[in-house]
Amino acid sequence: MTLSRIPLPLVALAFALGATGANALTLTKAAVTGSNGSTIWTTGQTGNYTLFLATPNAGDYLNPNDQPISLGIASDVITRALLSGEGYFPGTTLDSDPSYNLTLDFDTGQTLTGNYTPLTNTFNGGSSFASGGQNYSLIEFSFRRDLGDSVRPNIATFGGDGNDYNGNFRIQAAAGAVPEPATWAMMLGGFGLVGASMRRRSRGVVAA
Fold first, then answer.
1. Residue 121 zone, left/alpha/beta (φ > 0; ψ -120 to 50; rest)
2. 30: closest CA among 88, 108, 112, 99?
């Protein structure tokens, strides 16, 4: 059956059933905070050292001049971003804190968090939330100091301390088991259209 022959109510119903994976989020802010509380890297001109983000495919920083970020998180895929930050404390090669906490803020007002321990190279687990029929989970995070000079305190060019921090995070989006209220409304609307179409067709057969 071609698409042109499919009744419009069925098309509406199919759209409603498939809407659970159609939404996406936007990452608007990211921050890494040392467990001691004194070291902070964050996006968006906060006065702290900048946390620079890059996507592996593009290979370019999203915020090379400490501007706000806007990273789309697609449905039903894993999104990955690379992280860089100026070396702290200056003049040393050691990690500033025993562990680091990542906080990711989204345009929906929701947040993902996770913790990483450099000494053991351990991701200690991340949080998750549901939005638009999708479950979003932080499944990986790393952030540690290495022998490389990639960024300055607030601009993504080499300079400043010669031992910067680098890492990454990964967000997994997967379809949720229970549709949200808006999706239920679309589904019910689709069923109503199908029912109305069937009633009209039944009356037409009787009149003939």
1. left
2. 112
Angle made by CA atoms 19, 108, 74, in degrees to the nearest 5 = 50
pLDDT in tens, 19-66: 444 448 999 999 999 999 989 999 999 999 999 999 987 779 999 999
Among 97, 101, 87, CA closest to 166: 87
Hunting for tokens 């990483």 — which residue is that? 116
Find all residues with CB under 8 Å of 32, minimum gap 6, and list them.
40, 41, 42, 51, 83, 85, 100, 101, 102, 103, 143, 165, 167
Residue 75, phi then psi, degrees to nearest 5: -75, 150
Q: Are 95 and 144 in contact (CB under 8 A)?
A: yes
- SS3 of residue 131 by DSSP: strand
- What count of residues does the chain have? 208
Burial call 168-199: b when 16+ CB within 10 Å, e when fewer: bbbbbbeebeebbeebeebbeebeebbeeeee
The pTM of the full predicted model, rounded to 2 decimals, is 0.76
CA dist., res. 190 & res. 155, Å (int): 51
